[in-house]
Amino acid sequence: MFDKILIANRGEIALRVIRACREMGIPSVAVHSTADSDAMHVRMADETICIGPASGAESYLSIPAIISACEVTGATAIHPGYGFLSENQRFVQIVEDHDITFIGPSAEHISMMGDKITAKETAKELGIPCVPGSAGGVATLEEAKQIGADFGYPVIIKATAGGGGRGMKVATSEAEMERAFLTARSEAKAAFGNDEVYIEKYLQKPRHIEIQVFGDGQGGGVHLGERDCSLQRRHQKVFEEAPGPSITASERARIGKICADAIAQMGYRGAGTVEFLYEDGEFYFIEMNTRLQVEHPVTEAIFGVDLVREQIRVAAGEKLSFTQDDLKINGHAIEVRINAEKLPEFRPSPGTISHFHAPGGLGVRMDSALYDGYRIPPYYDSLIAKLIVHGRDRPEALARLNRALGELIVDGVDTTVPLFHALLQEKDIHTGEYNIHWLEKWLESGPLS
């Protein structure tokens, strides 16, 4: 096992890793920017080291600074959390070249799944069902129009190096293709430095279903069911639950086995998420995230496992501590992402927390780095807390979420808590009848005005 682990991240996910390290008896090192010198993850870690100024590019994204921090502190492994450098294959290669263990998959697997076209080709080879679309990158408008004619409209143009909805446009007809194609390429170039795009059939009312997978890099692989992440705003998830309210046990077993077999065949190491669009009983691969997900706590809740602990174990060369037969679903879990944002515009709202009270009680978990007097810096993502609830079934989980939201106090800044109070008044939320377009259409109707 590792002598010391450095966490190359901040906020609640850094705290999450520190807690796992502490339970395993492994000393932790927190890195931080000058803006985060008073952050909770800095207070909780066994050691801390400043790696640069407030700008993420000069601190949490600075590979030389993080490698130097390992050398100074004697850390023998790095946990990347999510975001920042967690899916940067160049970072992973540099870490390994310095004889430091990266707690995650290999640089090869990150590179393979980081390019959307290569990922889709790999998925097909591994037997994972994919959305019909172009065989590779689409270079010209004429080729794009031909693909639209072949598959039928609507189609969606996506950046091959994309994510977070950038470089992504829908064309509902040939007349719209030129604008959508050129705009997607322009956005992709600006966001990722790569204007290559590909085209897929655009599904009308799909749900976003992701399968949690885990491999030990030694031929072992399992799945831990699915999460439904269909409630999204601008392609950003805000409400996640497990198991998915629309997925049957037989569908879960079928797609889960496909994904588990695929990562075992790949020799994949660590946590991963295979993401799908789901419509009319069919799953269509869209991408694989080669890291821990923000929403991993709902999976932990229904399976009773510690995914971060398992990440550390397999990175240290150990085999999975559970088999597929060991993994049984217990109840239902929901997570809501609470951001420091002013509604209804969702405008970032950094500032000082004058009072913070986390909800508690049976089946309630709060992952947050907030405390009274903490100053939320304006330099990073606006996510400030994740509220996770677990119940015997979905109705109990929803009732518990309603109760926990009522107990939560975050004074001093605006937050998205009112969004979830409003959502819990909607019939479709209680019946589970929603898709990836539902939230944006609901917001357009002005319920938060």
What would CATH call the homologous superfamily of the largest domain? ATP-grasp fold, B domain
Number of domains: 3
Beginning-to-end CA distance, first to last residue: 53 Å
Number of strands: 22
Q: What fold name goes in the CATH topology slot of the largest domain? A: D-amino Acid Aminotransferase, Chain A, domain 1
Strands side by side in the biggest sheet:
13-12-9-10-11-14-21-19
Structural class: alpha+beta
Task: List low-pLDDT spans.
Answer: none
CATH level-two architecture of the largest domain:
2-Layer Sandwich
Q: Beta-sheet strand percentage?
A: 25-35%
The shape is globular
Number of distinct helices = 15
Q: Give average pLDDT, whole number.
A: 95
CATH class categorisation of the largest domain: Alpha Beta
Report helical residue fraction: 25-40%
The quaternary state of the protein chains shown equals: single chain
The gyration radius over C-alpha positions equals: 21 Å
Organism: Sagittula marina
Pathway: Lipid metabolism; malonyl-CoA biosynthesis; malonyl-CoA from acetyl-CoA: step 1/1
Catalytic activity: N(6)-biotinyl-L-lysyl-[protein] + hydrogencarbonate + ATP = N(6)-carboxybiotinyl-L-lysyl-[protein] + ADP + phosphate + H(+)
Protein name: Biotin carboxylase
